[in-house]
């Protein structure tokens, strides 16, 4: 005989429903009766919702999958993070009689008037996907477009919602406070501030505010505040050497821009190198890896933009026309050359860190392009 139990069954919200929101996520705008057009995928019909974190496509008839419920919380096809949107375009309602591929889409850089009637919205994503939303049978299209534009271009980093973050995540970005850096130092094997210390840019901290650095960063412990102020004056963009990572084997990775050629800057740089040498287990001086001055942030941005324009296709016909000389077009973007240089420089840094047991300081105005994180 079956005995009654006190078990309580909790029914998870269905994927794509308005109740299936993340902590801190708010529904801001929506449109009903929308037609979603994806190149090389089956199109869909349903409801589109813009939250402060993502764009959600709620299909009228969505096929069930065999995935566990935890994987249904976020679908990479039907849930688009707003931070992944590269550009927003729209077609006025006067072009309603034209097909998707013949419509002339206008690049949106500022909010539209509430009186503007939008026929279609086209989103170009940073992963080169192109999404077209047909809003001819919908209302509030201009409001939806404005919300997408607003939340995909936040004025402050603190306004970007963090999926899965703990309560009180707002204004607490990782590695933008002293506790985050202290925890990272402990994770890398530094249990005291003997070799490294966390420096702050708040008053009574760094003498010269470095806008491209976070509020807190890590520098050698023997580099005092006066030294930081002097280095900020002699290093390009004031980006003096800062700590990035350390291995449990006793080697460290630092990054820096190039310094000016004068009598004081080399002395300060030698002082940093000596501090890094003492923090290295082998007591060997750090290897100084200088990146090419020809690879500038502007060159990287232009190359990426050419690659994005080539790979972002909105129809099979457009893809077929480019497929004939695809490799030549890819090579013309210059992106492959940048990736090759990045891998070569990263390989050199890893070799010095892992095989030769020496710390590495990376110099160059484009050092953000090279991100080496050994394991």
Automatic annotation (TrEMBL):
<protein>
    <recommendedName>
        <fullName>Myotubularin phosphatase domain-containing protein</fullName>
    </recommendedName>
</protein>
<dbReference type="GO" id="GO:0046856">
    <property type="term" value="P:phosphatidylinositol dephosphorylation"/>
</dbReference>
<dbReference type="Pfam" id="PF06602">
    <property type="entry name" value="Myotub-related"/>
</dbReference>
<dbReference type="GO" id="GO:0005737">
    <property type="term" value="C:cytoplasm"/>
</dbReference>
<feature type="domain" description="Myotubularin phosphatase">
    <location>
        <begin position="175"/>
        <end position="362"/>
    </location>
</feature>
<dbReference type="InterPro" id="IPR010569">
    <property type="entry name" value="Myotubularin-like_Pase_dom"/>
</dbReference>
<dbReference type="InterPro" id="IPR030564">
    <property type="entry name" value="Myotubularin"/>
</dbReference>
<dbReference type="InterPro" id="IPR029021">
    <property type="entry name" value="Prot-tyrosine_phosphatase-like"/>
</dbReference>
<dbReference type="InterPro" id="IPR011993">
    <property type="entry name" value="PH-like_dom_sf"/>
</dbReference>
<dbReference type="GO" id="GO:0016020">
    <property type="term" value="C:membrane"/>
</dbReference>
<comment type="similarity">
    <text>Belongs to the protein-tyrosine phosphatase family. Non-receptor class myotubularin subfamily.</text>
</comment>
């Amino acid at each position: 005989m079956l005995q009654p139990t006190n078990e309580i069954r909790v029914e998870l919200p269905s994927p794509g429903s308005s109740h299936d929101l993340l902590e801190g996520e708010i529904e801001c705008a929506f449109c009903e009766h929308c037609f979603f057009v994806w190149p090389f995928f089956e199109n869909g019909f349903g409801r589109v919702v813009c939250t402060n974190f993502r764009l959600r496509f709620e299909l009228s008839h969505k096929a069930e999958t065999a995935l566990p419920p935890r994987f249904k919380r976020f679908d990479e096809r039907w849930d688009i993070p707003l931070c992944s949107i590269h550009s927003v375009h729209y077609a006025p309602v006067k072009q309603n009689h034209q097909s998707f591929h013949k419509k002339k889409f206008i690049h949106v850089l500022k909010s539209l008037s509430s009186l503007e009637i939008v026929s279609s919205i086209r989103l170009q994503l940073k992963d080169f996907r192109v999404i077209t939303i047909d809003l001819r049978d919908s209302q509030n299209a201009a409001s939806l477009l404005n919300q997408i534009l607003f939340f995909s271009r936040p004025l402050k980093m603190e306004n970007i919602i963090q999926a899965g973050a703990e309560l009180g995540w707002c204004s607490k970005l990782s590695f933008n406070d002293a506790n985050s850096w202290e925890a990272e130092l402990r994770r890398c094997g530094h249990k005291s501030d003997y070799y490294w210390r966390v420096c702050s840019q708040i008053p009574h901290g760094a003498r010269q505010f470095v806008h491209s650095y976070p509020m807190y960063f890590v520098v050698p412990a023997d580099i005092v505040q006066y030294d930081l102020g002097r280095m900020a004056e002699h290093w390009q963009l004031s980006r003096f050497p800062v700590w990035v990572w350390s291995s449990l084997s006793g080697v460290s990775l630092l990054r820096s821009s190039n310094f000016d050629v004068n009598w004081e800057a080399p002395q300060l740089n030698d002082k940093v190198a000596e501090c890094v040498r003492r923090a290295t287990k082998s007591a060997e001086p750090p290897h100084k890896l200088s990146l090419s001055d020809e690879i500038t942030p502007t060159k990287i941005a232009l190359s990426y933009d050419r690659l994005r324009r080539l790979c972002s296709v909105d129809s099979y016909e457009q893809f077929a026309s480019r497929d004939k000389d695809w490799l030549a077009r890819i090579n013309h973007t210059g992106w492959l050359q940048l990736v090759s240089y990045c891998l070569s420089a990263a390989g050199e840094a890893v070799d010095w860190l892992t095989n030769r047991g020496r710390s590495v300081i990376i110099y160059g105005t484009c050092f953000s392009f090279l991100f080496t994180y050994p394991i």
